[in-house]
Design a protein that fits this description.
There is one protein chain. The protein has about 290 residues and is an alpha/beta fold. It has one domain: TIM Barrel (Alpha-Beta Barrel), CATH 3.20.20. About 45% of the residues lie in helices and about 15% in strands. The protein contains eleven helices and ten strands. The protein has an eight-stranded parallel beta barrel with strand order 1-2-3-4-5-6-7-10, surrounded by five helices. Helix 5 crosses helix 6. The longest helix is centred in the first third of the chain and has 19 residues. The radius of gyration is 19 Å and the shape is globular.
Length: about 290
């Protein structure tokens, strides 16, 4: 929603939450009032028009690419697997540049071939961040439940600090944290300026993701959001809701559910006030 009529521009949807061709999904997301979308790489490369057509669709709908998801199994691999993953990363970074996506989401490696030595893992993340610097892209590192050496965000944070690159930060997954009962107080370990992305989802049963405010952990999720905000997080929030239920409903209805979730978070949780209609114009008149 635009700054003139709303108050959730920092909230966005994930392209994997909706069914149908990617241009139609982008249309539904924009029509619901969102101004950003997290793009799934396979959605982009599967589009008949390719990367250029997706970039044009983003511009047409006034959408910003929150980032590109997701590079998996990158860090800690032996040669020649490491060099193969570097090529994959370079291709994804090129896509980021073409799409205007300033962030690449990277999931912690679950490969059995991956090392567990934190110095090795940090070295590889540092190399990835250096590659990303050449195209002015930030790297957001995310702990995945199946990560071999990193499966919770404090471990991911330790590697981010160890790698020590200005464009390397953390991606937080609220669904994962809620599922393993991570207390919100653990967020106090973080430097909010190095948190580049927060993915939000609630759930009904471990396999059924829903939008924030719809699930069984409404209060815990609200606490997570308010604590991050109080710590100084002012980055992007992305609804990471991908489920069979979403993909079996009309995309417009799913996008409207996401809009209601963003309004709940903005108005009730973060207690933001929507600008009054024509407020900017009124201020101009009063100054004359």
């Amino acid at each position: 929603m635009t700054h003139s009529v709303g108050h959730f521009d920092d909230f966005g949807m994930d392209s994997g939450s909706l069914a149908g061709p990617l241009p139609a999904r982008l249309n539904a997301i924009a029509a619901a009032g969102f101004r950003q979308v997290m793009l799934r790489a396979h959605d982009v490369v599967s589009d008949p028009g390719g990367v250029d057509a997706v970039a044009a669709a983003l511009r047409r709908h006034g959408l910003r690419a929150t980032g590109l998801a997701m590079l998996n199994d990158f860090e800690g691999l032996p040669d020649p697997l490491r060099e193969h993953k570097v090529e994959v990363a370079q291709a994804m970074l090129t896509m980021c540049k073409a799409l205007g996506a300033r962030l690449l989401l990277v999931g912690s490696s679950g490969s059995a071939e991956s090392a567990s030595d934190p110095d090795v893992l940090a070295r590889d993340l540092r190399r990835l961040a250096m590659l990303a610097l050449t195209v002015n892209v930030r790297v957001a590192y995310k702990a995945l439940p199946g990560g071999r050496a990193v499966d919770e965000f404090p471990q991911a944070w330790e590697l981010v600090c160890r790698a020590d690159m200005p464009n390397l930060g953390l991606a937080l997954d609220a669904w994962h944290a809620l599922a393993i009962h991570t207390p919100a107080i653990d967020l106090d370990l973080l430097d909010a300026e190095r948190v580049f992305l927060v993915q939000l989802a609630d759930f009904i049963g471990m396999q059924q993701r829903v939008f924030p405010g719809e699930g069984a952990h409404r209060e815990a999720l609200a606490e997570w959001v308010t604590r991050l905000h109080s710590l100084g997080f002012r980055g992007d929030w992305s609804f990471d809701v991908h489920s069979d239920d979403c993909l079996q409903q009309p995309r417009e209805g799913v996008a409207e559910r996401a809009r209601r979730s963003a309004l709940w978070l903005g108005e009730k949780v973060l207690r933001r006030s929507a600008p009054l209609p024509n407020a900017v114009m009124l201020r101009r008149i009063l100054r004359t």
